[in-house]
Amino acid sequence: MSELSVNHLLGIKYVTKEDIDLIFETADHFKEVINRPIKKVPSLRDITIANLFFENSTRTRLSFELAEKRLSADVINFSAASSSVKKGETLIDTVNNILSMKVDMVVMRHPNPGAGVFLSRHVDASIVNAGDGAHEHPTQALLDSYSIREKLGEVQGKKVVIVGDILHSRVALSNIFALKLQGAEVKVCGPKTLIPKYIEKLGVVVETDLKKALEWCDVANMLRVQNERMEISYFPSTREYTQQFGVSKELLESLNKEIVIMHPGPINRGVEITSDVADSNQAIILDQVQNGVAVRMAVIYLLASKIKQ
Question: Mean of the per-residue pLDDT values for the chain?
Answer without folding.
Answer: 91
